[in-house]
Write a structure and sequence with these properties.
By secondary structure, this protein is mainly alpha-helical. The protein is 55% helix and 7% strand. The chain contains 13 helices and eleven strands.
Length: 380
């Protein structure tokens, strides 16, 4: 923002709260619908404008819905209302009904994301209905750990052990009080998937062959940063703080331009930068330490959040008074059409022809607005 004198004015926490409200409102009006024929349920339609099959939830993408719950928890924590609290269970209930067979599935990353979201709903908003879900999910994650390798696979029966599964499983374990297991996973990630040159986290490794998949995805950095931050807070062991500090520097150096997170994409990739931002914000407000290096790291993390959020807001489209965020926060958002929906294949969802139509992209925009409020309200 710029004042009449031409000076840049940093948005206040109240202004970020207003923007987060608008991001939430856009999701509610464009995407949230009752699951067909099931009262007391809601799910996010995965595209807007939606195809008929999307409106009928023929496609629904479990882990996108888990992040919808997580965003809904953010809003309820920031500004509690009865409607926001009720919404948490209605989405979770919708997931249970649409998943048909129960709360779990074959993908450990999916189940970890839902565990994180529901644990937050119970702990911060008192949503007691999720207790049975958490017990089932915790059992599945604990049983999925393979001690001979020290990690969980991406999905049941796979030889691929990756950061997108182990990062959120580690966070879930920490938040469920299983700090020993969370530390095992954090140590495994640091030993097997950290790039010694850049400090960033590779995608995953095939075991027992040891073949490393070296793509670098933004959300891999986010989940490892989140896990190390949780462990730094709850165990006090210096290695976790040291790893978090190193990763914040690596993210700033390699994944931002002018302090703004780079990269774009729809489909599953539409959530990647939003996940990164969530845990960069977590580190900004939670990472312990009173030395200059700790203070500077928290400020650096907060700056990444605020600059990314400012860029995304400035490049949004206003559609009937509500924001539509771009997949690349540095570029103007484009109004999507109904054609060109993404395809689910091989365990992942490709981008729509216009990634702005994907629920994943808009959830990342909502995460970003909530994160900007969080760090600004903390005085960072």
């Amino acid at each position: 923002m710029t004042s009449r004198t031409g000076r840049n004015i940093e948005p206040t926490a109240a202004l970020w709260s207003e923007r987060a409200d608008l991001a939430e409102s856009a999701i509610l009006s464009r995407h949230l619908r009752t699951l067909v024929g099931v009262p007391g349920t809601q799910l996010g339609v995965v595209g807007w404008p939606a195809t008929k099959r999307e409106r009928l939830f023929a496609f629904w993408h479990y882990w996108w819905q888990a992040h919808l719950v997580d965003c809904a928890v953010d809003a309820a924590n920031r500004a509690p209302t009865p409607a926001r609290q009720r919404r948490l269970w209605s989405i979770a209930h919708g997931m249970r009904m649409r998943n048909i067979t129960g709360w779990t599935n074959n993908y450990y990353d999916d189940m970890a994301w839902l565990t994180i979201s529901l644990e937050r709903a119970e702990r911060t908003q008192g949503v007691s209905e999720v207790r049975g879900a958490l017990l089932a999910l915790e059992k599945a994650l604990v049983n999925g750990f393979e001690p001979q390798f020290g990690a969980v696979p991406w999905r049941k029966g796979s030889d691929f052990f990756n950061a997108p599964a182990n990062g959120p499983v580690g966070i879930a374990m920490a938040r469920l009080g299983r700090y020993g297991r969370a530390q095992e996973i954090a140590d495994w990630l640091d030993e097997h998937l950290r790039d010694k040159e850049t400090g960033l986290i590779f995608d995953g490794i095939h075991l027992p062959s040891g073949e490393v998949e070296t793509p670098v995805y933004s959300y891999c950095q986010g989940v490892v940063l989140g896990l190390e931050t949780e462990l730094a807070v709850h165990t006090g062991e210096p290695r976790h703080t040291e790893r978090a500090l190193r990763l914040i520097d690596a993210i700033d150096e390699h994944l931002t331009a002018g302090g703004i997170v780079t990269g774009d994409g729809g489909g599953d990739g539409g959530l990647f930068n939003g996940i990164l931002i969530r845990y960069v914000a977590l580190a900004a407000v939670m990472l312990p330490g009173d030395e200059t290096v700790h203070i500077d790291a928290r400020r650096k993390a907060a700056t990444i959040v605020r600059r990314s959020a400012t860029a995304a807001w400035e490049h949004r489209l206003d559609v009937e008074g509500e924001p539509l965020f771009g997949a690349d926060w540095r570029q103007p958002a484009r109004l999507p059409g109904i054609a060109g929906a993404g395809i689910f294949e091989g365990g992942s969802v490709s981008a729509s022809r216009s990634p702005e139509r994907d629920l994943s992209v808009q959830l990342s925009g909502w995460k970003l607005m909530e994160a900007a409020h969080t760090v600004t309200a903390a005085g960072l």
